[in-house]
Amino acid sequence: MEDVTYSTDDAIATLTLDRPEARNAYSSEMAGGVVDALDAAEADSDVSALVITGKGDAFSAGGDLKAMKERSGMFAGDATELRRNYMEGLQRVPRRFNTFEKPVIAAINGPAIGAGLDLALMCDIRIAAEDAKFGSTFAKVGLIPGDGGAYLLTRIVGFPKAVELILTARVIDADEALDIDLVNRLVPRDEVLDEATSMARRIASLPDKAVQAAKATLYQSVDNDLETSLQLTAAMQGCVQSTEDHDRAVDELLESLRSD
Predict the structure, then answer these.
(1) What is the architecture of the domain spanning 208-259?
(2) Calpha distance 22→93 (Å, rounded)
(3) Mind listing the pLDDT tens digit for each residue in 59-90?
(4) What's the rounded Cα separation, in Å, for the pair 75 and 157?
């Protein structure tokens, strides 16, 4: 896993973007490292939730401007080659997130800009530093959100606000991000990772199969009609209600009620 670090502690995996000298801007290696980390977390039955953060003062500055200028790495080649680079490189990340079943929490320790913002949007929950900045700033460098950002931002903040943020390339502060539901919670910078990890542990304390089924149901229901959602949840409920996790959780709750 190049340009990232990956570790586990009990049921929590932590993925850290590790190019602090470039403010954790994407490289081809980083994109591959993120996908590899998601694969590792998915395959590890001991991992119940994943936290993603950045090393240093930034979450991620997005695309590497130096590589853009030099037309190197993922920015090399003619139009056809660039299309392939995106599809086989950076776009592997949102595609992998789209099939990742376990909860993911972004610990946004600093600026999340461009593709860095989009990476945060791929997570299920976002905990941000009070001094973090956010921007879909592709237009500033003559580009468009090329890694799913237009789709993701629209789902999270709504179409009108997504249009404004993308077309103006405006950078917003953490308070505005909270106001428009771009992030779930703000905490002091030195508490971001601890808060995200604490939330991950809270989620990990619940039955894994039920949590993963709930996540799948939420994402598959948001763009569908009520009847489709009801059919889906009936099937999902039938599955999770037949698990030992469910039986054990009910027994524990009944026992706690008797104790009270």
Answers:
(1) Orthogonal Bundle (1.10)
(2) 19
(3) 999 887 787 778 877 778 888 888 887 777 78
(4) 29
4-204 CATH, one of 3.20.20.70, 3.90.226.10, 3.30.70.80, 3.40.50.2300: 3.90.226.10
For the chain, report the end-to-end CA distance as a whole number of angstroms. Answer: 49
Q: Which amino acid is at 62?
A: G
Query: For the chain, which residues make up each domain, given as ranges?
Result: 4-204, 208-259
In sequence order, what are the residues at sequence separation of 6 or more whose Cβ sits closer than 8 angstroms to the Cβ of residue 249? 206, 207, 210
Tell me the CA distances in angstroms from 161 to 81, 113, 136, 169, one per residue in order.
33, 16, 11, 12
Output the DSSP codes for 170-228. Answer: -EEEHHHHHHTTSSSEEE-GGGHHHHHHHHHHHHHTS-HHHHHHHHHHHHHHTTS-HHH
Q: Distance between CA 82 and CA 258 in Å, rounded?
A: 63
- Residue at token pair 């395959």: 43
Residue 203 contacts residue 49 (beta carbons within 8 Å): yes
pTM of the prediction? Answer: 0.89
